User: What shape does this take?
Amino acid sequence: MIRILKYGAVPMSEIFARVEPTVDVEKIVSDIISDVRENGDSALFAYCEKFDRAKLDTLLVSEDEIQAARDAVEPEFLRILELAAGNIRAFHEKQVRQGFRIEKENGVVMGQKITPVDRAGLYVPGGTATYPSTVLMDAIPAKIAGVGEVVITTPPNADGSISSAILAAASVAGVDKIFKVGGAQAIAALAYGTESIPKVDKIVGPGNAFVAEAKKQVFGKVSIDMIAGPSEILIVADEKANPAHVAADLLSQAEHDKLASAVLVTNSETLAQAVSEELEVQIPQLERAEIARASIDVNGKIIVAESLDTVIEITNELAPEHLELCVDSPFDYLDSIRHAGSVFLGRYCPEALGDYLAGPNHTLPTGGTAKFSSPLSVDDFIKKTQFTYFTKEALESVAQDVAYFAKKEGLTAHAKSAVIRTEDSK
Assistant: This one.
């Protein structure tokens, strides 16, 4: 049963505590990365057989397999994929940056140009669930950014196939290549390249502890989006909230992972008790009841505070991945939210809208990292290059100032490079 904690009556450490994964995967992942770097495709085939029970002849998904997947999924699912993709495109097209150029009267020109990365690798999880939504959320911003080649890695089924839903989503999103490989070995292949899988410049997408650790270890060789942990939701709700709705929304994230975090923060003890009771009604009805039960028991909690102002303070301290504001006039509170990955406003905006259809991205910072990081966006797939141009006259006007500054740092070669051109002209 979910814990109900009274803010101010229990230690702060208990209010903000969260059980984290305890498996030490660093050495395992390091060995896998080394193996893939040394042995390329042969290592990937071996890992597919070992971890996925799939004996493959090729890693690349063929065009025939992709077309067969589109033919296999229901027309209704294709319709919804296209609807979601349209919403995602509309939202992310607003994120496109423009370069700029500043021209001064003395002939100095400076500015910034925007260039997409050449190739991006998207990791799409497999295992206990498939995530075609992740394909759309990760691939569409990359395409909008202008990335030259977008590739996916995702674990195969034991028969060597890939989920038809994932392949159909990849087709809708315009993914260029799809490879049948998952886990840390997929991240290694994307970071270093193999005979089949091209080296990428950026790796994005969620995954288990092994995938997260692999992204951490290859960072610097390639760029990554973030180190994502188990999913989390925090719901701010007042006494008018419907307990059944709140419980359903908590469970929408609890069913992801036994270590997922589902938290309600409220100013109503009556609502807290009603939601606790409603959870016990709804959990047994879920297909993933065992996972949801573990999540609620391990990382679920209801925090009761005296006022909504205090509720907002607690929310900012927790910096949740997903935040629902189930209150009247939710826009009145939006400016007070400083730390959250994605905010869902009002009593009719469940977090599941953001997972699939609304348009804003669902690849979000977890574990409190919303205090300093942002959702996946078009910005993740571009880089900014500065440029500067000085005329001879413009350089002469500041050369001595540059040299003075350089000498303050003890860098006399810097100073010389600024003044030598002005000396030559005399």
